[in-house]
Amino acid sequence: MNNNDLKKAYLQSYIPSINAAKRIEEEIEQLRLDKMMPSVIMDDMPHAHNKTDLSDYMAKLDELINKLIAARYKRIDLYAEIFADIEYDKEFDEKYYAKIMVDEEL
Fold first, then answer.
1. More exposed terminus of the chain, fewer Cβ within 10 Å: N or C?
2. Tell me, what's the pLDDT at 72?
3. CA 37 to CA 102: how far, in whole Å?
4. d(CA 102, CA 68)
5. Is the model's pTM score more than 0.90?
6. What CA–CA distance (Å, rounded) separates 59 from 64?
7. String of b and e for 39-61 (b: at least 16 CB within 10 Å)?
8. 13 DSSP assignment
9. What is the SS3 assignment for 46?
């Protein structure tokens, strides 16, 4: 792999963190929809009526929200790291090219 391929792979390492946060958001949305609109079975057979409180739902929702917050922080940290590396690389390149220009003038 050449240097550009390594840079591309490093920059693309941000994409899975975006996808992870999106998946968790979708899970939260699905959980909310399942609670608001439970599936209805129309087969005229008696079924047990599971009347439960919202504690299970809220516990699962709280767990998913905590996962989402952690995924977002991870994404922000990775973004900041990549951004800092890009800035460092720019500064290094500018100093390097400035030194070359000074050397050529001499």
1. C
2. 94
3. 71
4. 51
5. no
6. 9
7. eeeeeeeeeeeeeeeeeeeeeeb
8. T
9. coil
Write out the two tokens for 85: 């590396």
Quote the pLDDT of residue 36: 80
Tokens of 78: 């990775």
Q: 78 with 13: CB under 8 angstroms?
A: yes
What residue type is 2 in one-letter code? N
pLDDT tens per residue across span 48-71: 665 566 888 899 999 999 999 999
The amino acid occupying position 65 is I
The residues, any chain, with a CB within 8 Å of residue 60's CB and separated by 6 or more, are 31
Query: Closest by alpha carbon to 28, among 66, 76, 55, 70?
Result: 66
15-33 b/e (C-beta count within 10 Å ≥ 16 → b)? eebeebbeebeebbeeeee
Residue 25 to residue 69: CA distance in whole angstroms: 10
Distance CA 44, CA 38 (A): 17
Residue type, 77: D
